[in-house]
Amino acid sequence: MSGSTFxxxxxxxxxxxxxxPAIGCVIDGCPPNLELSEADIQPELDxxxxxxxxxxxxxxxxxxxxxxxxxxxxxxxGAPICLLIRNTDQRSKDYGNIVQxxxxxxxxxTYWHKYGIRDPRGGGRSSARLTAPMVxxxxxxxxxxxxxxxxxxxxxxxxxxxxxxxxxxxxxxxNNPFFAATAxxxxxxxxAMDALxxxxxxxGARLYVEASGLPVGWGAPLxxxxxxxxxxxxxGINAVKGVEIGAGFKAVQQRGSEHGDELTLEGFxxxxxxxVLGGISTGQDLxxxxxxxxxxxxxxxxxxxxxxxxxxxxxxFGRHDPCVGIRATPIVEAMLALVLIxxxxxHRAQCADVEVFTPAIPAGLG
Amino acid sequence: MSGSTFxxxxxxxxxxxxxxPAIGCVIDGCPPNLELSEADIQPELDxxxxxxxxxxxxxxxxxxxxxxxxxxxxxxxGAPICLLIRNTDQRSKDYGNIVQxxxxxxxxxTYWHKYGIRDPRGGGRSSARLTAPMVxxxxxxxxxxxxxxxxxxxxxxxxxxxxxxxxxxxxxxxNNPFFAATAxxxxxxxxAMDALxxxxxxxGARLYVEASGLPVGWGAPLxxxxxxxxxxxxxGINAVKGVEIGAGFKAVQQRGSEHGDELTLEGFxxxxxxxVLGGISTGQDLxxxxxxxxxxxxxxxxxxxxxxxxxxxxxxFGRHDPCVGIRATPIVEAMLALVLIxxxxxHRAQCADVEVFTPAIPAGLG
Amino acid sequence: MSGSTFxxxxxxxxxxxxxxPAIGCVIDGCPPNLELSEADIQPELDxxxxxxxxxxxxxxxxxxxxxxxxxxxxxxxGAPICLLIRNTDQRSKDYGNIVQxxxxxxxxxTYWHKYGIRDPRGGGRSSARLTAPMVxxxxxxxxxxxxxxxxxxxxxxxxxxxxxxxxxxxxxxxNNPFFAATAxxxxxxxxAMDALxxxxxxxGARLYVEASGLPVGWGAPLxxxxxxxxxxxxxGINAVKGVEIGAGFKAVQQRGSEHGDELTLEGFxxxxxxxVLGGISTGQDLxxxxxxxxxxxxxxxxxxxxxxxxxxxxxxFGRHDPCVGIRATPIVEAMLALVLIxxxxxHRAQCADVEVFTPAIPAGLG
Amino acid sequence: MSGSTFxxxxxxxxxxxxxxPAIGCVIDGCPPNLELSEADIQPELDxxxxxxxxxxxxxxxxxxxxxxxxxxxxxxxGAPICLLIRNTDQRSKDYGNIVQxxxxxxxxxTYWHKYGIRDPRGGGRSSARLTAPMVxxxxxxxxxxxxxxxxxxxxxxxxxxxxxxxxxxxxxxxNNPFFAATAxxxxxxxxAMDALxxxxxxxGARLYVEASGLPVGWGAPLxxxxxxxxxxxxxGINAVKGVEIGAGFKAVQQRGSEHGDELTLEGFxxxxxxxVLGGISTGQDLxxxxxxxxxxxxxxxxxxxxxxxxxxxxxxFGRHDPCVGIRATPIVEAMLALVLIxxxxxHRAQCADVEVFTPAIPAGLG
Lengths: 366, 366, 366, 366
Known about the structure:
Four copies of one chain form a homotetramer. Helices cover about 25% and strands about 20% of the residues of chain A. By secondary structure, the first copy, chain A, is of the alpha+beta class. In chain A, strand 2 (about 10-15) and strand 3 (about 20-30) form a beta hairpin. Chains A, B, C, D: This reaction introduces a second double bond into the aromatic ring system.
């Protein structure tokens, strides 16, 4: 409702600004007796953090997470878990030149008109830096989903601007700075990024994320559909402009005889649905595509207006990501985990004692 | 949370099944003193109802709405508004042959495993018929948005299967059974539908919906973003598999210098953002695309399993829509209205007394 | 949030006005596979309905409940359950003389100023008649609590005005019109009510309600405490002005050595806590007292103002309850049931897999 | 839902344990442009903090609050406000002797059975220390309520055990350690507390809290009644066992002609309602009584059981409050403020444009 809490039963409340003293979140509703320490969370933050390659912002921020509450002798207690990440590199002078103007494609303008005030330092509240606490919370969710349900989540980049990136080898995802699931064509991506950075412009990206190991039956009809909640979660990530489940926009041109996944005793024969029917999981892999727009802070001069309502030209200097999509894979994974844990808990609330005598078929083709 | 309530401040709780005694909804939180009668709602229901052309299900259902509460002497009182639609055409025998099996692409299978029980008559709770109460609630929201804020909402079909339908003339939308915003090519659409119906198969569609007249500032950062809530609303509609805001998936290939909408004293110079920046409205038109999958109930035989876990073949007879997208335009319009009224009220709650001294620029290019 | 929905996981949305076409509620989140028919609900409504003795309003209303959705072949499906009660006796002329004035002690005045409009017929939305749908929803909750957890709930009147009514024999509760748990002193209560009715005045009452059979562990620390939710539920009933859990206001004068319930292997040695510690159930009986104010609609003339802001005298004629507390026992029972089912479901969501090796002690002294 | 968030529009999420690294809260939804610094919050924390007299726990904790987010250049931005209070005095050895047993009247037992784990250090999550973040959040709410609406809130102790404390002079509240609104009888209270402390026992208390300056019309019918939300807020405070609004339990014995507050052009002639009719504010003073039980941690030996399920004797040593009610006045004030700001915002959401032509009468007798 008030905008900073995600989830209903596993609730994550996010706080902080890019250049304030700290960012973080409070997780309320985490089940008790989950083994948890900073070491479970830090690796996920490290995957997202800036400064890891020449293609992302050179802001130097270790993003060290501290657990302030909710864990006793290495286990969650059921009490809220506060995760704190101190901001250490707050060179707000970098942003001095944009305080008086509104960047095209940036939330500057809308924040100003909504609140009558904005924290302009590094984008303030609208900074992609605020995804870090979600990655941290997602790490807690992933641990629980993995240990209790055997669910795993993985994502990769499938397009960098107009360069399509095939999914060929998931083991390669961490061997390149792009989260590409292939060893082929990485040089071309590096070259494209170098040229882009030199030009002062930015570019969009497309990501793919999937979850495996789900049971049949998570989700809800009508408004808390699993796919609707995924769309909400993904579209809520900075810079996301489109979301697809399964066949997505390809479904427009499909026939029903092509789109409807046949069931056999060996499992589903295809996965056009993306693992969701009627808002409820089928047991197949969940499949999601996400479109990410190009960064709005670029060096190319653009027309805009200033706080006095006068015409102005905006050029952004300082540290920026020429493609925000590059660091977004850990974020889409985390958000998917947060949707799933909430639905896992909701399912237990309503249907803990449901017994189905017809066994579910195997998942079949992912 | 429990799946049948949409919205936070203007809350719509939906109830009913396709072949039960009635469907309907309760709207809680509607502002008082809005003039309202059934005559404000019925026309929207009539646009969505079945039987209006040969291309949609021939179920004969008048969908007459009755206001049971919340209105006194023609005005809303602030109390909950119950809208009731009696089901009159409940030929459940049409569905007799599918009670024992699971239709490929249909929620039969997931409902069964989630709840251990399902109402199979006409799809029960998973029927698209349950969008009717949302169209009714949306009519109330649209009236308030129009009268208090001058906001108008309109939608159309932009693709029927592989046939692209250009937006050429909004005044044509109600002159053809497809909600096409053009007078051209309707014959081809009719022919395509006739061939499709004869083949026993179904096809997907793409819809476009927009809202005009929004102020700058509705929405919220992080999780109750206007665009995230729109994605949630749209993906929650039966059969929707993809949602785009503004440039959508085109943003993947755009440069920042192309995507970021420049601001001038005459307004924005483009609308790649689709009217939302940082989750908050820019004052430009809101622009949304929606992908709708082909109907799962088709006459073409498909492989499946039955309630005893045995292999089976499924063919669906009886009344069905070969393209559920055809009747979906009033639904996407209604859901957009429901998102907007909620954000209008939320904005008043938090920011009722914000004064911004820099005037907003004109909306510019929609 | 918007005021007409109670509960988070077992959500009851109430609608209707005293003299509109119908009142009712939608229950969302009810677990599936619960056997349910109107016959499970009607008896509870009959206990609350008017016209059952000369001491309550003579409005003649059968309060017949109809299940409109959510039940298939006699079992709940997990889909929302709409319960409808048509208003049949709408003699709004009875209230004609109060449309222009504000009754002292009545919500007339506050509704008028909040909404700028009110439905004055029979109290409109503020009528105690709106507790009927809660009694109906409570019947569903009680059935589930009884069948799944062996929980029983019972209430009685413990004071009618200044007449204290001892709890001596629970089997007598339904043998008198007052829900008194005793066979003694009923004549005196009858006489007191007759005198009161003749005087044209009204009187308050105190009720007691308890739940037995709870497990240890339902509830939550801090804000969703079981006792806080009970206080919320009870204070939300029309005319309630005070709520006590366990020792209640007696705890003010108690010593810690008296109030703290000792634990032994035979169970708790007392129940000052009323069955809740730290917001979580102890396994003992839940014990709640509720204070109900005298009816505001009385024949005794009172000073007030009218809609034109002029001084006026108000006398209420027509059908009224001289003690609203008389019919309130089924209501407090129902609200307690609604709190408990919500916490039962919440507990499953978060703690479904908690194993405690130290066994709980027996409940001991209720 | 998950227990640690209070409020719907002005949402306060509380985190921390008594002896963990820190406690605090995140306020989401605070209106923008409110001037705010630590200096606005610290005085309220100082009123509640331990060690201020010999009658309260001698734990030495400065309770210094740090604003981590949501404030820019001295003003709130509309973004979430994280308030952090580091725990500095964590002498958990004081509690070593109670780790293995369950204190009578304490949440030890219920936490253990709910979660299968508990943080026993200083009561962990169930410690009254967790009210400090609520006092801090309440300070923000009070500032806004005062500046925007001229609302003031004040509370006092009206009974310490069996000693009644009259309200005679509000200016005396801070001149004694008991928050007594009188200069008379303080010596007797001091003596009673000294004797109590020597005895190793504890005692209950009754508090009164009121709010002045409310407009007519805040609140909502049915379930989000202003008084129901107050009851919820108060009963959620540690150790509270009873709540009254206005006449409270006295209403049981009142006649309608006594209880119903007459209206005249000079205002209400009495305030039996406590400022709420039908769940909505009347414009009169809000009046609330709260019963607080005696501290459960006492030196007097009590029977209990231990973690192995064996009989045990419990005596609590270390620092404790012999009457938790003594420090609770700032807490009840804070919780009342949090209820009011939420309703203020909710009222704007639904009724921002209501115009009432009949002017409200003056508040009249508080």
